[in-house]
Records
---
Amino acid sequence: MPTPASPTSSCRLDQLSSAHPAQITQITGDRAQQQRLKMLGIRPGVTLKIVHGPNKRGVVIQIQGGRFAIGKSLAQEIFVEEIRT
Amino acid sequence: MSACHANTTACATSDKIVVLAGNPNCGKTTVFNLLTGAHQQVGNWPGVTVEKRSGNLQLGADKMAIVDLPGVYSLMGGGGEDQRVARDFLLDTPVNLIINIVDASNLERHLVLTAELLETGHPMLLLMNMTDEATARGWKLRCADLEKALGIPVVPMVARKNQGKEQLLQSMTRALQQRPQGQQVKYPLPVEEALQTLANTLSDQNAGRTRIAALRLLEGATEAETRQTQTLLKSLREQIQAISGEDPADLIMDRRFSWAQEMAALTLQRTGKAGLRESINHHLDRIVLNDWLGVPVFLLVLYLVFVVSFSGGNIFLDFFDQASAALLIHGVGHLLLIAGLPEWLVAVIAGGVGGGLNLVISFIPPIALTFLFLAFLDDSGYMARAAYAMDRLMRRLGLPGNALVPMVIGFGCNVPAIMGARIIEDPRGRILTVLMQPFMSCSARLTIYMAFAVVFFRSNGGQVVFALYVLGILVALLTAWLLGKTALRGEAMPFVMELPPYRLPSFRSVVLQSWQRLRVFLFRVGKVIAVIGLVLFILPGIGWTNQGLRSTDIDHSLLAQGSQALVPIFAPMGIQKDNWPAVSGLIAGAAAKEIVIGTLNGIYQRQNAADLMADYRHPDITGQLEDALHSIPANALTFFRTLDDPLGLAAMGSTSATEQASGAESATLRAIAAGFTPLSAFAYLVFVLLYVPCASTMGALRREVGWGWMGFSLLYGTGLAWGSSTMIYQIGTMALHPASSLAWIFGILGTFGLLVLALRMYGRRHDAHPARLRKQAAL
């Protein structure tokens, strides 16, 4: 990918508060947990959009056609980068 | 594992096995129902498909067994017990054809499993389901291009609307002959070389399956069996790591992902913007996921389940009850008398077996509606959202949010609720969830509440029954909390769940699912009733006398003697010696709750020598059937007038209406009134709520969590039932005998304290060996 048009900001998924799409850059935490997310297609490189939250419960995201609810503790392990065009 | 695990007959007669495989929520069950229709052997519990099941399909000259599996994300691991079932089957069973079902609107993600399935080397066919949803999202599908790239047939379909069935059947016939195996994913060179080396050492007879076996080894999904393979594997992994700088498992997975991405890009062509359906989804989610509305919406949905099931069921309850009584009791009795059978035999068959069946049949409407409603809820896509809405609350009790799904199913019946706990991934959460289910008040228990409520709680029956339901939920939650703090310590796994799009469930699918479940219910109860009914007509007739076993009257029969011997155990909760039939009812209730009132009915009827013979001689069957038919519009009117009374308890005011609702004859109600006080009746109902739900539930417990936890549940539930009812009765009668009441109360509290201590010690010991827990859960 070429360098983005405007500066990007990297943050944790539970801190992302934006209607813009964001790209997952990194997932931390233990391997089993990462595996669990990967099975669902939540992995570095994919683009997501916030559907609901983030709040105390967690966050609901959309990746292509699928919606996923992610608990707060897990959302803290997912790092994203906002995509601005 | 054999293909015919649950069902040998299906496999004995059919030579081809076709298996449906796909991610969760791809519509497998709908396709299964479409293919097999009513020809399903195993009536699995809907709610969630957690078990494999099979049905027959005749296709030309071929008769085949269609196997439906739980949804699975990957063959390499992950997910709950339900996914393990699917994985084991796909890996170990020689199948003739895999139908891989993918959701066209989630193509990229679903194709990852396709890559793995192609690696199993089985003949395969790709079923592109829900093409309408992809279109609604503004995509055009190029199935022909995908077919070329994959090398297997691709069939577009909208299973929910019955579109594309013909094409699927044609493709199946062709695929069974041509056995297309498709193009497998090519991995980076070092991986391919390692796979080749591994494949050479594997002595699997089936050449087609060595690749998947090698892949699973390299990805760490299985352990190497021999020391030699272990060393080889280790060096291969290190080689790959050295060359590529990446872990082989990651390398393989990433390649599958990029392959799926390529295939999806090849297939999907953007033609327009997302349409109406997407925006409906969006708006519904804004309400359902709302911070403040999430929990109230869930409670409202539950309330609706009750309104529709109980009040709606009441419309037809009288019809089922009166019509089956007319035919099975009076009609059969009349015919048998005409046939010249002796009166006692007529009484046994018509009164015992017929009367027992009559009791079950009258409960078909509310129970069928509960099943219908739960099937609807499951298909609609709502339950995953409810789980998310309740997650924070459940987490405080040490449970994951999706533990809620089985609990809701438990209102219908505890057995599928226990099976449904398979969706919970970590073994600790699953055991906790399973142990909660026996306390959920199932529809069979309602029959007992109703009979007692009409006698003792005429003016506040609604509140009493509601209180019992709430008590059940509270005991379930507290049990999970207690065990989670003591014997099964740990954290609930962090929440992540797919939220399927909202769908209007297909009528056919919902009706079929509920019918499957109702059939199992009827069959099970019918069997128990037939046996118990007979036993109940023999036991009360014979007794142990000075001259040995002789025919006696009921008060000196074996049943009476046995029950009387047990009465002292129940004396502290207010059951007097002459009320021994209440104890008989509890014993029968341990087998099935549906027969408790039937048992009381049988005994009290005999004690009071109700003479049905006159009815058998001159029955008025047509008149009774007419009355039965007239009850439907009358009850329908009541239903619409009392929408605010979901349990249908307003009818409590009129004795006759509730009598019919509970299936008890008025003689029985009079006997109940004589044997209990309101306080002891309430204590009795609490006991009924909390002790062993039924033999089937215990069987399900044993299957899911093993003998140990089943034994615990049995003792804990019965102990808790006895302790709670005794506490209630003793607190209520404290004024009469303060000293002994206090002794009972402190005795129970002390015993409970000891139990908590024992559970803590157990937990401490097991904290050191967490693996043992995992092994138990896998039993």
Note: Confidence is low (pLDDT under 50) at residues 1-7 of chain A.
---
Amino acid sequence: MAYNILVVDDSSAMRVVIKKVLHMTGLDILVFEAGSGIDALTVLEEQWVDMILTDIHMPQMSGVELIEKIRSHQEFNTLPVMVISTEGREDFLSKTQKLGVAGYLKKPFQATELRNAILAILEEHNADIQPAATNDDEDGDF
Amino acid sequence: MSKIIVRISDMAVSNLPGSSIVTYALGSCLCLVLYDKKLKLAGMLHSLLPEGKEKSLLPDFNALKYVDTAVPLLFKECYKLGATKQSLKVYAFGCATIRDAANVMNIGDRNFATLQKILWKNNVFLEQEFVGGSVSRTVEIQIDDGLILLKQGNSTITIETG
């Protein structure tokens, strides 16, 4: 099963890092990118996604505003959203919790932390999650 | 105290009291260290390149040269001496950005990505990683107490594996 994941961050370098980690999960993942909350909504109009990873501090539309917009649409109100941000204040965390975010990771993060968080969220929302089949299942095992 | 030296495309496993295993001048190569506290058993490998499985039929193929073929061998050598996947603590070093003339190889990143992929596939997690940057590293693990001595640049870090 393939997963469509939307990565929203105004830093293209950060989007590259996140994409790398997503490809390391071993899952069949197609990554869509958006540089702002507005771009993310445009992507969502045209493309179904299974999960959103979003930054918070972005120009034009913040991550919080993006989540609020998403939650106001019936179609997207259960879509898992994970926040990846430098923001760590308690009032902020409490606000995002109320918006029903599926996970939160503070920048800077370890690749393994992000990978584990993504897998946990996908697993929770998709009962049949399996790493992508490879041709080398017999090799490299220990 | 005997010192076992792991060269490039090489590995060593030891449970010899008083011994240590060391590898020098680690750049973009990967150094993986395993330690079993109860058995006082350590393993170390030093691999040069990320993927070699497709080259495995070549006559001069050295499985320890490549991360994807070397990592399973290191674990299996430790298993032979009684360790299990659960009893081994795993540490990664190296994978620095040592730029080639064309500035495009990115070997260090690829080595680490290959390691993560193979560990993930086998349900193994790294305890700690000291990777990336552009420093040369020397890694030594003492068998008796499991201490890892990491020299990177001008500094030395002691890592407790317990």
Note: Chain A touches chain B at residues 20, 24-26, 110-112, 115, 131, 136, 139-142 (CB under 8 Å).
